[in-house]
Each structure stands twice: as C-alpha cells, then as structure tokens.
Amino acid sequence: MQDEPGRMYEPRQDATSPILFMAREPECLLIGGYWPELMLTVLDFLNRAGFIVDVLSIHAGFKKHRLVRQHVLARDDASFLAAATDMIRHPYALVVPCDDPTLGRIMRSGLTDAQKSVLLPVMSSDDFIHIYSKIGLSQILRKHGIPTPDFRAARDRHELEAAIRELGYPVFVKIDASSGGLGIFEATHDAEARALAGGIAPYPVLVQKRVPGVTVSMEAFYRQGRLVHFAYSMQQGRTSEFGPTSIRRYVPRAGLEQGVFEQLDALGGALGADGFVNIGSIRSDIDGDLYFFEADMRPNLWINHPRHFGDDPAGAIRQCFSTGTHFDPPCPPVSGDTLLPHALRLGATDLMLNRHQVWRYLPSDFVYITLRYRIGAGVVAAMAKLYKRLLPRPYRKAVKRCLASLGFNR
Ligand SMILES: Nc1ncnc2c1ncn2[C@@H]1O[C@H](COP(=O)(O)OP(=O)(O)O)[C@@H](O)[C@H]1O
Ligand SMILES: [Mg+2]
What we know:
The chain has a six-stranded antiparallel beta sheet with strand order 13-12-9-10-11-14. Strands 3-2-1-4 form a four-stranded parallel beta sheet, sandwiched between helices. By secondary structure, the chain is α+β, with helices and mostly antiparallel strands. It folds into four domains: 27-119, Nucleotide-binding domain of ferredoxin-NADP reductase (FNR) module (Rossmann fold, 3-Layer(aba) Sandwich); 150-209, 2-Layer Sandwich (Dna Ligase, domain 1); 213-363, 2-Layer Sandwich (D-amino Acid Aminotransferase, Chain A, domain 1); 367-405. It has helices spanning 36-48, 77-87, 100-108, 113-119, 134-143, 157-167, 190-199, 258-271, 313-323, 348-352, 366-390, 393-405, and strands spanning 27-32, 52-57, 68-73, 94-97, 151-154, 171-175, 184-187, 205-209, 213-223, 226-238, 245-251, 276-284, 290-296, 338-341. The chain starts with 26 loop residues before the first strand and ends in a 5-residue tail after the last helix. The structure holds adenosine-5'-diphosphate (ADP) and magnesium ion.
C-alpha cells in the first residue's frame, strides 16, 4: 500500500445518482482516518466479516489498500461532510465511524438528524445524547437503571468544587469529549481538587466517583439495539496510568454469569446501539458488581483479538448480516482465561524480546503500520525538528512559497 493522495472529494454532476455498485456481499462505509492504525485494523476485520468496504477518509493512505473498493479523500470539514452526505445515498448495510474525532465532527455538523442517524451507530436521533460525551453517557445510564459510578456534571469551577464535596474523595474529573485517558484526572484531596478546578478546560466536565476494582472491557457489536457479539476481558497492563490497555486477560463468555448478558442487552437498548461499541466498566471490589463508565460508539484496536481463542466476532457479524436475523452468540468452547498482548501497544523492548508471546498475535498490517506510523513518523518528526533548528522562520516562509509554486502545497 502506498501513501499517495487519494481521489479528492468532488461533488458528482448528477447529484441524485448513488454510487453505482451492485454487490451480493453486504456493503460497508468506513469513515474517519484520524487514527489510521485503527482504521487498518477495522478494515481487516470488516473484510473477514464478509463486507465490501468503501472508505471516506481524511488520510490518503487507504487509496491503494487491497481491501478498499472505493476511497474518497476529504481534506477539510466541509468536503468531509459533503462527501459523507453524498455517499450515504447508497444503501450501505453498515456505516462505521472509526474514531472519536469523526464522531465529534458528525455530531457538531449542520447535517440533518436523519443524515446523522445514518452516519452514527445508533437507531435514531433520540440516541445522540451519549455520543462522544461522558456526561451524556452517564445521564443515559442512570436514566435506564444501568449501574454507573455516582456522578455530577459541572459547568464551572464552583460547580466542580461543590460536586467534589458532595461525592467525596477519590473522584475522577473527566473532560466531556476526550479519549485515550488524556482528559482524565484524579483528585484525592482538597489541594488537588482546587488545582484541577482552576486548570481544567473546557467545561462542562464530568465529576465521577472512583470505584475501586478491576477494569473490565467489552467490545460489543449490536444490530438495532440487540447484542450480536461481545468479548470480555480484564485489564492487565496499560500504556499509561489511565491510558489504553496493552495486555488483557480474556474470559470466555461461557465462564460469565448471566447478569453480564442481561446488562449488555439493557445497555444496547439504552444506547440505541446499532454497530460497534467499546464498553468500559469496573468490577467493584466492594460489592462485586459491574459499574459501566464508558461506551464509545466505535470499534477499538482489540476487535480482532478474540479470534486467537476461537471466538472471532467477525464470524458472528457475518452470520448476522447474511441471515438477516439477530444472532444468538454461542459461547466458545474454551476453558480458562487467555492472556493476550497488543503488539501496537507494547514498547520496542517488549516486542523485540517477544514478551507475553506477542509475536504470535501480530496484527495483519503490523509491518506496514510499524514502518509507516512508528518508524516513519519518528523520522519525519526528527527531520522537522532539524529543519526548524537549521532554518530560521523568515527563510522557512520563503521555502514554503517556493514549494507551493512548484505544486508541493497539498
Ligand atoms: N469511575 C471510575 N472508577 C475507577 N476507575 C475509573 C473510573 N473511570 C475511569 N477509570 C479508569 O480510568 C481509565 C480511563 O477512563 P475513561 O473514562 O475510559 O477515559 P477515556 O475515555 O479517556 O479512555 C479507565 O480505563 C479506568 O481504568
Ligand atoms: Mg477508556
């Protein structure tokens, strides 16, 4: 796969004709590109699930991908939304927004509710409130009686301090639309709370009681609010204190209590989920119950991992779309837990030393991703630093102008 510019979005002359493809396999529109590593992972997954995939992306790197039927490149907000509106006139069986910035972009856009409903993995515009919003999610969970840590929404520093007083320490203060642990702060005493109240932005923020326990992740897929598949794992290692998980212990669904299935069914209904959901919860040390605090309406980097213990979600999703019925997921015939590392989340030393047997679980595009996004990005960043050091600002402008006149400005 090469990283060359894809077809830039241009409105079609015949604005009423949908994309002219007839296919027997279900067709999927994958949109995003802010997180290319995830997009490549999802592309591989969707292919195994039997979909023909078109891509609308802000990233040029997908144009020549062997699994992409049609690629549309959109460089800015306006062309992205225009292309999305245009493409969804084709009756895709599934539309997958692949990252949080894309969910946010669609939510903030001036598209109609009907257009947003097609682009977002929910059943109707009544289900928008929780999309890329931690406050909205907490409110929905509470409204539907799904256990979630006690919380308050705070619009300014006074409300934040009052909320912390009500909830008591320890609490998490979370930026409403944030991901990767980057907008999560813990307060354990007054000085920390005061510093947070003065420094955190933007408001409103979610103030949430910390639940002591083990973080449990569930990658689920719903169709029309009904559960199709899920994988259940406990966090064993992560990239930073509140960052994404790097090692997980998967528990086969046969080993789970019935309550988990019931809660996930209820969650799908509460969210109006119609697609991938990345669910986060805590198994409380106090009462042993699950408390849900996260439901990102997108896939994550772990979606391919359950196939390593014989429970490939792609198979369940393929069956769901081919038979047209909701699929009652069988429990994989595995006994015992499975410890799985994620190669894209481990450090270079762990990778080289094959810690946790990571070589057995490399993602399919691992070499490309490593060269293009790890080593390649590192080299580009180092060159940019050197360039800035060697060339003072006024000269940089002149070089930019010169490159632009030669046609290198895209
Ligand atoms: N209420 C909570 N109680 C205990 N731990 C929590 C709570 N909220 C978040 N965490 C921990 O912090 C991590 C990051 O929080 P999360 O809300 O998932 O942020 P992000 O959306 O940035 O991933 C979680 O994976 C979990 O381990
Ligand atoms: Mg999280």
